[in-house]
């Protein structure tokens, strides 16, 4: 075996040019390239010939082939597809990027002196996770891509069009590892909730949960990367413990019973990653490949900075490499030929273990391995599934209506890289005349009229040239189609093949069955004298929808002069327009619409119409011109020129009494059952329409305004809480329990906090309310308030970051945003650990832990949950962060023991 550690394979801090941690490494299936991801937010693709061949290394100039920089955060995982056509990368920016080779690419990297020998462009951007993406895995034949992250989710994406298929939400902690069964029957994931879960691919249901090997495992590992053996018989999982938590092991989980009776023992610290050699091996090289004669080779990487390689027919490892790295191992990857192992570390280096075939005796060709895997029967049982997937893939290709890209020319590699030629589709004609295409990844998706060059780390792709997958994904708590349903199959398609049964009853516009028949339609003996049913009606339902026409401004709104105090600030009021319209929030594809036509003369009344697509659901006539209208699935609210607000249900009934404001309405917002209105005199009102009650007495916002400060926008949350953004860069909300206005955010956080979300990153629908608020406040302020020229004290950034995160925790509670609360809490804990602020950390621990014993006379106001999340579950994650730090490690470990005993006492 040769050990190679190329110094030129590295990721660097662009400012001080120092090495930064490398979190992931993966080898291309043809062995010509290796991809790495690091703290610098870059994906780098390296040629392997200069690594493995000393002579080529000395002469080659093209060692690095490409630098990809479209992520805005550290790249935590890189994975080549099995075909080698695509490269997937995941980052702590919550996004997965799919990269495709661009034959016309290459050139200088934007903002850098580096030159790309190969051009890899962003094929598709996959949002969907709400936190760091920690691991990725391609299914056999690239049928699916699985991703896991710190949002506790597992997301399955179609391997053909990269659309999201389903979310699996069974874990209750950070998910840090994922692997596929080599026959495609199961998917395994590993999480900080101290479990490995095995999921079926037939219906995406949970097959098994394995917890025993991980009961005493710490939550301190950066990853929990597990691996499935190439014979399909075992899963080797990282971060397992023996002997009540005193022995660090890798747990070997048996396939059928899902039990772990075998452990790989020897590492002196937690194991981060396990990686199986892609080949199976024979115990007796002269015998046939039977179950009793098969073994595997697996590599382990641990926090003790060592790598071990095991062959399962031996009780001891084949190789233990110590003192190769200075910091923990982050990732391992085998080449497809099974003779080269790549390892990366958080010390910023990559090491390569190059074996001779004689050292790994009994290696079996992949062709024999494929025959052996047929014993599971899953591939044959799913022949129909795979045929349907192939038909769907063929239809998808036709739908693109684009010619295939030209074959990539051989790049100029100066001998550093062998050319990779993608496999061509093999088309055969069956007896019934149908085409059968051997699966290969879609080539024409990569075609583009322009070349996308890797952008700097701060660049976030927003161009329409990079397709984005839909973020609307079904979760596993819903009934979902099995894996034999094609990714693009809709419910309409599924029902298209069902037999249509005769049904004589009509259905009205509200979805009710029309069972009514007039009395005179019956004969003297009760027999039906007519076959015609009368259809139920709605007010205005017999009218067809008329086009609203162009919107014209009719006049300025006339305010109620008696309601405006002389000298008081008067907010802007919308003018009277010829027509108003709004879509009904939450209706099916927003198909329902409310339209209002204001009277242009005294002869005609103002008319409101509720449309269900092109049909009129109901109508009404208003006594005054309408200034604003909002609608949800629960109600419709119309603000009139005289200061009145009318409330309707979605069937046209009055939802509650008409309320009268002191002046015309300046702002009107609705969400689910709640309505917020701000009058022209600055009085803020909020109602729960379902209960016909006010959330708080009317309160004035005028004290917060000035000649230079106005209301920029108003937002209303589904829980009734609101957010008002001012032009000064301040966000406020009225808190009834405090009977006071509260500052949710303020400009100084943007000037000094390291956690401020000040730039766009993906669609706003994928962000939380606080992140959207901070982006909006940044846009409102622009360059105003920039304090970069002000001399800042030593602790400026630290103080403002902690203050900002503490404020964000309170704001997340106020605005009912549990995901952002947890994210802010973990960022806050990380900052306390980095700075070593023990007193703040201990106070946070006590706040989350609560009382551990009963004390007579003590008034216990501690609540065990926050935003429906168990505080002690949150504390486990916080203590894990403290335990991994240099300054608060003992504090975190001590309280982990306290919490463990407290939980045992509660269980008892």
Automatic annotation (TrEMBL):
Q: Locate the Protein HIRA-like C-terminal domain: which residues? A: 652-848
Q: Which residues cross the membrane?
A: none
Which superkingdom is the protein from? Eukaryota
Indicate the segments forming the CAF1B/HIR1 beta-propeller domain, all copies. Answer: 19-203
Q: In what ranges is there compositional bias, type Basic and acidic residues?
A: 386-397
Gene3D superfamilies (UniProt xref): YVTN repeat-like/Quinoprotein amine dehydrogenase (2.130.10.10)
Q: Spell out the InterPro entries in the cross-references.
A: Beta-prop_CAF1B_HIR1, HIR1-like, HIRA-like_C, HIRA_B_motif, WD40/YVTN_repeat-like_dom_sf, WD40_repeat_CS, WD40_repeat_dom_sf, WD40_rpt
Please provide, alphabetically and separated by semicolons, the GO molecular function terms listed in this UniProt record: nucleosome binding
Residue numbers spanned by region Disordered: 386-415, 459-485
Keywords per UniProt:
Chromatin regulator, Nucleus, Repeat, Repressor, Transcription, Transcription regulation, WD repeat
Q: Where is the composition biased (Low complexity)?
A: 459-477
What is the annotated localization of this protein?
Nucleus
Where does each WD repeat begin and end? Answer: 15-46, 68-102, 126-158, 168-199
Which processes are annotated in GO (biological process)? chromatin remodeling; DNA-templated transcription; regulation of DNA-templated transcription
Q: What is its main location?
A: nucleus
Output the Gene Ontology cellular-component terms.
chromatin; HIR complex; nucleus
Q: Indicate yes or no for the key word ATP-binding.
A: no
Family per similarity comment: Belongs to the WD repeat HIR1 family.
Functional description taken from the UniProt entry: Required for replication-independent chromatin assembly and for the periodic repression of histone gene transcription during the cell cycle.
* Name the UniProt record assigns to this protein: Protein HIR
């Amino acid at each position: 075996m040769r050990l190679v550690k190329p110094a030129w394979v590295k990721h660097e801090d662009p400012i001080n040019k120092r090495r930064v941690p490398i979190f992931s490494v993966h080898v291309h299936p043809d062995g010509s390239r290796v991809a790495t991801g690091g703290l610098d937010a870059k994906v780098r693709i390296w040629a392997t010939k200069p690594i493995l061949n000393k002579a080529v290394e000395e002469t080659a100039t093209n060692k690095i082939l490409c630098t990809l920089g479209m992520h805005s955060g550290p790249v935590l995982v890189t994975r080549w597809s099995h075909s080698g056509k695509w490269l997937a990368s995941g980052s702590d920016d919550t996004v997965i990027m799919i990269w495709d080779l661009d034959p016309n690419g290459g050139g200088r990297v934007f903002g850098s002196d580096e030159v790309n020998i190969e051009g890899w462009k962003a094929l598709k951007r996959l949002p969907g996770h709400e936190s760091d993406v920690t691991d990725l895995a391609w299914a056999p034949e690239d049928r699916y891509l699985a991703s896991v992250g710190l949002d506790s989710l597992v997301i399955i994406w179609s391997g053909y069009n990269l659309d999201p298929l389903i979310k699996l939400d069974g874990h209750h902690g950070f998910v840090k590892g994922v692997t596929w069964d080599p026959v495609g029957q199961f998917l395994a994931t590993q999480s900080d909730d101290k479990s490995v879960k095995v999921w079926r691919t037939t219906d995406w249901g949970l097959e098994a949960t394995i917890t025993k090997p991980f009961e005493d495992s710490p939550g301190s590992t950066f990853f929990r990367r597990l691996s499935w053996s190439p014979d399909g018989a075992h899963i080797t999982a990282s971060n397992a413990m023996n002997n009540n938590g005193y022995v660090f092991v890798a747990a070997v989980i048996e396939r059928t019973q899902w039990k772990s009776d075998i452990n790989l023992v020897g590492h002196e610290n937690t194991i981060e990653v396990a990686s199986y050699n892609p080949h199976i091996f024979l115990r007796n090289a002269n015998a046939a490949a039977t179950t009793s004669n098969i073994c595997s080779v697996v590599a382990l990487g641990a926090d003790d900075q060592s790598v071990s390689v095991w062959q399962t027919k031996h009780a001891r490892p084949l190789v233990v490499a110590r003192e190769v790295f200075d910091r923990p191992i982050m990732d391992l990857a085998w080449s497809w030929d099974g003779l080269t192992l790549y390892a990366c570390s958080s010390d910023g280096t990559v090491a390569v273990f190059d074996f001779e075939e004689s050292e790994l005796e009994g290696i079996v060709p992949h062709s024999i391995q494929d025959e052996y895997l047929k014993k599971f029967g899953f591939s044959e049982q799913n022949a129909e599934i795979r045929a349907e997937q192939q038909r769907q893939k063929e239809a998808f290709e036709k739908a693109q209506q684009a010619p295939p890209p030209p074959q990539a020319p051989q790049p100029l590699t100066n001998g550093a890289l062998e050319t990779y030629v993608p496999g061509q589709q093999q088309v055969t004609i069956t007896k019934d005349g149908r085409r059968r295409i051997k699966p290969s990844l879609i080539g024409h998706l990569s075609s583009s009229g322009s070349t996308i060059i890797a952008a700097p780390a701060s660049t976030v792709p927003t161009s329409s040239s990079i397709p984005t997958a839909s973020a609307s994904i079904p979760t596993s708590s819903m009934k979902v189609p099995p894996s034999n349903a094609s990714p693009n199959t809709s419910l309409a398609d599924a029902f298209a093949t069902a037999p249509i049964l005769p049904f004589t009853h009509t259905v009205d516009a509200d979805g009710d069955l029309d069972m009514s028949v007039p009395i005179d339609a019956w004969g003297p003996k009760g027999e039906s004298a007519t076959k015609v049913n009368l259809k139920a009606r709605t007010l205005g339902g017999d009218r067809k929808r008329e086009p609203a026409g162009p919107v014209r401004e009719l006049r300025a709104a006339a305010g109620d002069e008696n309601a405006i105090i002389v000298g008081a600030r008067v907010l802007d009021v919308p003018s009277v327009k010829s027509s108003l319209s709004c879509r009904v929030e939450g209706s099916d594809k927003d198909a329902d619409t409310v339209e209002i036509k204001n009277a242009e003369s005294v002869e005609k009344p103002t008319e409101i119409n509720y449309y269900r697509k092109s049909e009129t659901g109901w109508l009404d006539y208003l006594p005054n011109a309408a200034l604003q209208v909002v609608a949800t699935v629960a109600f419709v609210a119309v603000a009139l020129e005289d200061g009145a607000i009318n409330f309707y249900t979605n069937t046209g009934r009055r939802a509650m009494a008409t309320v009268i404001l002191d002046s015309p309405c300046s702002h009107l917002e609705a969400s689910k059952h709640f309505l917020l209105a701000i009058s022209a005199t600055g009085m803020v009102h909020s109602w729960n329409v379902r209960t016909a009650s006010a959330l708080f007495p009317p309160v004035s916002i005028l004290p917060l305004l000035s000649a230079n400060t106005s209301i920029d926008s108003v937002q209303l949350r589904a829980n009734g809480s609101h957010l008002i953004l001012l032009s000064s860069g301040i966000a406020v909300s009225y808190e009834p329990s405090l009977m006071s206005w509260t500052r949710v955010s303020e400009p100084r956080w943007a000037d000094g906090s390291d956690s401020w979300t000040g730039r766009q990153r993906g669609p706003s629908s994928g962000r939380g309310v606080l992140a959207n608020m901070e982006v909006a406040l940044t846009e409102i302020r622009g360059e105003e308030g920039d304090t970069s020229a002000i001399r800042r004290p030593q602790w400026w950034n630290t103080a403002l970051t902690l203050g900002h995160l503490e404020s964000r925790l309170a704001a997340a509670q106020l605005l009912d945003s549990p995901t952002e609360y947890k994210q802010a809490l973990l960022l806050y804990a990380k900052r306390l650990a980095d700075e070593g602020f023990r007193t703040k950390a201990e106070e946070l621990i006590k706040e989350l832990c609560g009382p551990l014993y009963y004390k007579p006379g003590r008034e216990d106001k501690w609540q065990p949950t926050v935003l429906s999340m168990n505080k002690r579950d949150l504390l486990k994650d916080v203590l894990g962060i403290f335990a991994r730090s240099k300054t608060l490690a003992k504090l975190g470990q001590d309280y982990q023991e306290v919490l463990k005993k407290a939980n045992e006492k509660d269980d008892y």
